[in-house]
Amino acid sequence: PVGAQDTIAPTNTDDAAHGLAIEAAGLNTGTIEGGAVATATFTVPEGITEFVCTFHRGMTGTIEGVARAEG
């Protein structure tokens, strides 16, 4: 949910180095070597936010922060 702390653990199953950045959340895993796992905690931003590989700018994705359901 929006505003919650979330921890991610991207795993690099490639031989090439990668890195994950969510600029809107101030998150950057740094270099993730082939076969390695990184962990990072960030505050979930509202709306749709892009993430990108810091080594390969064409590798992107999105996360969507949604309001917590009332209940």
Describe the structure.
By secondary structure, the protein is mainly beta. 0% of the residues lie in helices and 37% in strands. The relative contact order is 0.33. The mean pLDDT is 93.
SSE diagram, text form:
Blueprint: E1 5-8, E2 20-22, E3 27-28, E4 40-43, E5 47-53, E6 60-65
Task: Name some characteristics of this structure.
71 residues, mainly beta, 4-stranded antiparallel beta sheet, two-stranded antiparallel sheet, elongated
Low-confidence regions = none
According to DSSP, the number of beta strands is: 6
Q: Helical segment tally?
A: 0
Largest sheet: 4 strands, antiparallel
Mean of the pLDDT scores? 93
- Tell me the strand order in the biggest sheet: 3-2-5-6
A few lines on this structure:
The chain is 0% helix and 37% strand. It is mostly beta strands and 71 residues long. A hairpin with a 4-residue loop joins strand 2 and strand 3.
